[in-house]
Amino acid sequence: MSTMQEVAKKAGVSKATVSRVLSGKGYVSEQTRKQVFAAIEAAGYRPNLLARNLATSKSQCIGMVVTNTLYSGSYFSEILSQAAKKVEESGRQLILVDGKHSAQQEREAIEFLLDLRCDAIVLYPRFLSIDEMDDIIEQTRQPIVVVNRRLHKHHSHSVCCDHKGSALNATQALIARGHQRIAFITGSIDSPTALERLAGYKEALRQAGIAADARLIVEGKWTPACGAKAVAQLLEQQTAFSALIASNDDMAVGALKQLAVAGLAVPEQISLLGFDDIPVAPFLRPALSSVKDPVTDMIHESINRLIAMLDGGDMQLRNDFVSGLILRESVSEAPAPE
Fold this sequence. Notes:
Oligomer: single chain
Helix content: 40-55%
Order of helices and strands: HHHHEHEHEHEEHEHEHEHEEHEE
Strand content: 15-25%
Distance between the termini: 80 Å
Strand order of the largest sheet: 2-1-3-4-5-11
């Protein structure tokens, strides 16, 4: 690796001038700055990244904050792989930071990326409030796009999925097949997505004139074990139901196993539906019906919008994305009354 002295020699300047260029401190003419960076590239010199960021005001990096509760399963894999692919296409690098377990830690993650001089940030929040995110965007020079939340003030900085509408459509599909007693396994109640899906389920029942039964709603926490536990709880309290919606496919997989243990056939006795359309969903027996969120489209829109904010160009703002309902073998007509 070349040294700063060798770079200075190639550029025809002093070592102190190279240092000023890299640190961004002190006056250096634009022509000299260009000479130094040309020499750096020719010499293969790798200066301190933060120093270069200070000198150029650009890091060619886009940061991403994701809460670690998403760090498993196909949903997170799709988010990360699509973000990395899209950022790489723009000639930049993706830096992932954990938002951890609180709004304060999500704020700290954003501040960490700003300290690294990331050019822009994708935020997939769980704990920060809408007002807090609006304030952060107002106070931050670098552009930030928020995924999966609707902002009050900065609509062009948010990309959302209509989780309530998706759950409403899924529940209506079961009602249209004659199901009146539909159980529901929620996601973690501190999750905005979980609350929207629960609201959509309740709205579909209301529109159909079906009274919501609190005994048919069981709280889960996104894992297969929670899905199995929820089914065990429903069966233990002996509340009849002919269909079951789980707020994600992982819980639906656990529910499918527990229904089989209890001797209940899917879909002959219980129709089953999940969310996320995980890769194994079509290969289960029976194949699992699921709601497919447009994760790839949302991430692509978020990165494209940030790049337009950074590099200029037109932005075709698409703030709301609609999920697709995929009906497979696990859903059928409601059983005839005995």
